[in-house]
Design goal:
Elements: H1 2-21, E1 35-38, E2 43-46, E3 52-53, H2 55-88
Antiparallel strand pairs: 1-2, 2-3
């Protein structure tokens, strides 16, 4: 009985953390397929390519991707600003 209670608590906490972290329906970093959580092995498995990742690995990949996206966004903003300055200048 206690083991079943602990499993329910774990699943509830895991679901809550997933919602907070934005991992309620994670997508595969390799192929973009939908990933399922397998509670027995505590891994996320891609339905398309079969990639298997733990929560920690998935989180780390997501953070790396987020950082590179931020850098790309900063570069785009800088280029837009430079282009606007050039466009508004009289030296066209």
């Amino acid at each position: 009985m206690r083991k079943r209670f602990n499993q329910k608590v774990f699943l509830f906490v895991h679901a809550f953390i997933s919602l907070v972290e934005g991992l309620d329906m994670p997508y595969c970093p390799e192929c973009g397929g939908e990933m399922l959580y397998i509670s027995r092995t505590k891994h996320y498995v891609c339905r398309s390519c079969g990639l298997s990742l733990t929560y920690q690995e998935l989180f780390e990949i997501k953070e790396k991707t987020r950082e590179s996206y931020r850098q790309d966004e900063d570069e785009r903003k800088k280029m837009r600003k430079e282009y606007l300055q050039w466009w508004l200048s009289k030296k066209k």
